Batch of 2 targets.
Target 1
Amino acid sequence: MIAKVSVDVPSAQTDRLFDYLVPAEWQAYIKPGMRVIVPFGPRKIQGFIVELTNESEFKQLKKVLELQDMEPVLTSELIDVGKWLAAETLSYQISAFQVMLPAALKSKVKKEWVLATNKQDLPLFVQALFGQKSSISTEVMKELNKQEKIELQALLLSGELIEKYKVIEKAKQKYIRMLTLNEPYTLEAMEADLSGRAKKQLQILHHLVHQKQPKATNQVLQDLKTTRQTLQPLLEKGFIREFEQKVYREAMKDLTIEQEHAFALTAKQKAVLAPIAEKIEHRKHETFLLHGVTGSGKTEVYLQAIAQVVEQGKEAIMLVPEISLTPQMVKRFKGRFGDLVAVLHSGLSAGEKLDEWRKIQRQEVKVVVGARSAIFAPFQHLGMIIIDEEHETTYKQEDNPRYHARDVAIYRGEYHQCPVILGSATPSLESYARAKKEVYTLLELLERVNNRDMPTVEIVDMREELRNGNRSMFSEVLMEKMKEKLEKQEQIVLFLNRRGHSTFIMCRDCGYVATCTHCDVSFTYHRHQHKLKCHYCGDERQMPKTCDSCQSEHIRFFGSGTQKVEEELTKLLPQARVIRMDVDTTSRKGSHERLLESFERGEADILLGTQMIAKGLDFPSITLVGVLAADSMLHIPDFRAAERTFQLMEQVSGRAGRHTLPGEVFIQTYTPEHYSIQLVQAHDYHEFYRKEMNNRRLAGYPPYYYMALINISDQELTKVISVSEKIVQVLKRDLQPSTIVLGPVASPLARLKDRYRYQCMIKYRNEPRLIETLRNIQDHYLKETNQGNLQIHMDLNPFIFM
Ligand code: ADP
Ligand code: ZN
Ligand code: ZN
């Protein structure tokens, strides 16, 4: 028996199947889709069995060394999906297989030697190599002299040592630093020892005494608004101790799940569910686009459709964007389907993800709720796939293979003959256009459940505010409203589309902006550490005292981030309790959920945050939403800027007044006349669609054209330019005349991590030669991209143009 194996060497030369002999003892239970360890040149590597046959064109075959699975990790359907995915996205087959599996299953293999005899019987130098360990790594070979190497080989031959392949799972442990009091000291003794001026230190001691148990160092520093330096004297005196602790994921595990009952659907919801239910019942594929305003009861429709699928003994996949995967959402699903739900999201450790994935593989669950990669859930009787917030760009993977979950969903839907539902309050233009052309079936829910009003939206012209002498980041009306809501004890959401304290620093005398030396992007100022950081390569430097260019001391911070807003809030509304949610306050596992739950319990009046608060929140007492700077997205160099702005504003306003209390929204902007902002006021998606489609048509952008982006980068600028020019020549030569090839031009981010970047763009309507032409280009530069510095990325249907 011969196994055809896709091997874990992502390169064009190895992007095919390799034949291996299957040892007789495994033939009874080996199956396609299992992982194996195979010899490959001098190495042993992992691979997937794609096929089992009895024939091979090759005579001398090596044997499969190890079987890693008892059950296939890839179903025959997923093997097929992998092949299709690789072809569609111009990536390697092995990468496509790997992306469908939890990371923990991708393992490194290490060779090691273990004892097969008493250690005492071995030569002394070998005993020394083992020391206390039960195995030695083969790397020690390098350290040995010639005679020793020969002796070791002899031990292997005689069977006293055995060579083994140890699989190193990729699941990594995470540690955080914790602080605790050191036992022998009493608080009095410590206080006596510290001088009265050491206020911060005393505060820390009291805090830890109060805590009674160890607490994460970062949390202590954050809670007491102090820095690491304060800890130093306490650590030196031995009053406190710092240690590392494994981080377990606390989030979502201890959710209290209450059983939830289905609502009696409204007539409109029923009308939307009916055609979906029909497809479920008759096991037919169809793609639906469910356009439903925020709060129109889409999720309830999903839940009832899923219930029907489960009743049929089938399974359902529900995709939601990572940031909408809130405890609230999970509770709602678990409340309906209990233990039949698996949840897959990035907050899980690699091991936990594997656990959830195994539940699906073993058919212990019927429903998976998860972010993008959950689209590959190894269900075998799929009855429906739902993609909520289908317009979200996070459904596109920005690494190889650059797939879009929507395409995979439809492919799998056809395979399983089951419906696919794309849902959104603001569908992507592409999807809505397809629905108009009846490629998808359009379903609309244009009113909120039980005719609750959509929130009223007021647009505030910030130029006017400035003319009236208001230099604060809050307009007068918004300030008034916030005071009013605080008095009524209703909750407020403030949205800012940025992170950090100030986005960049600029010299007021000469206009110099501090930029990263490796990337052509400005540094971001981080107030907490008083440092400048590059958000692309991670490089950082101390905040300069004077301008690098003219030595002036007049350096100004530009842009205003969430931290700055928080400071101003505490000044202007000292009585308000504020929760800030941004990348900085939510970087720790579980903190996202903790902050939201705290807000839900009413422990704060204002939730201030970035993108991550735009979605999924459904709290009854939120009655006011303020958008601080609606324009910040409008001016990015991206043809989807207006669409993103409209979507985001509509999502954010959707947080207000979802229950009995009416909601009000204030959008502050410097471009109040822009249609993407104007139309949020009327909540008029259809008009936005009409206007934006017209612009896309005039400019020749999707959905009127398809697009492909090629990015070329290298450390040498001349190389990048010459390769880019050649690629453009080839494209113009080999593609149809009706296809438009633009560039090469320097990318908007012209240099990243010391690499120069160029790009060219292809716009086409129907281009049968595209894939072949791009493959040829890949192959032509194969050697250089494999060995040299050159990188060529190809992105079909790109979402990022930087
Ligand atoms: P969407 O997903 O469109 O934003 P949801 O499904 O979350 O809307 O519904 C909005 C609110 O209305 C939720 O609080 C939900 O519990 C409630 N709801 C949904 N459907 C019904 C119904 N048929 N009857 C009563 N309340 C409903
Ligand atoms: Zn950088
Ligand atoms: Zn200067």
Target 2
Amino acid sequence: MSPPHSSSFVIAVDGAAASGKGTIAGRLAAHYGLPHLDTGLLYRGVGVAMLKAGAGLDDAARAAEMAQALDLSKLDDPALTSAAGGEAASRVAALPAVRAALFKLQQDFARQPGGAVLDGRDIGTVIAPGAPAKLYVDAKPEVRAHRRWLQTFARGEPRTEAETLADLIRRDARDAGRADAPMTRAHDAVLLDTTEMSISRAFDEALRHVEQARRRWEALRT
Ligand code: C5P
């Protein structure tokens, strides 16, 4: 069954950690003048709040409370983008109560009248299954680890490239293996493998696919 026709132009960008999805989503948002939500930051916000509170990362009730109380104006805290923040995010993201607490906020963002760009793991499958444009961004783990290591190195985080690769592989396995909203390509998402691509080439490819999707969506509206 095909998903219902979406009345707003939603671009869903899913994919693995350090695949380039966040940068691509940000550039698509700028290109189309659409608001952008990096949904990974929501899970990072909950994970880091749990760490700061000294709570166990498998304490579902506490994590769900933290998710409900999440302060969206604090999502620019640099602690969220650390390796520890990513790991904590992935742990709390496996808890159905946390996903449920963050669901409406994301769906409301996707449903705003002018359209929106969201990036994450389950946008095309769970949050906005009717999105007219869906991308699933991936790249070889070694290439993703190298990109992520360059970012963390620049920030002065003491992680080796091998540790970064091990972190990514463990996080991918947890994200893809969880029962609730696992990381997976929606059947109607275009796969964009950025292993051999510069970020500007990856954006050009993404834009080409999204433009095709936009033309199909426009044609259905008229
Ligand atoms: O995208 P980012 O790496 O910042 O996401 C951090 C973690 O948040 C992911 O590893 C994943 O476990 C979780 N996440 C999720 N669903 C989303 C976005 C992120 O489960 N839509």
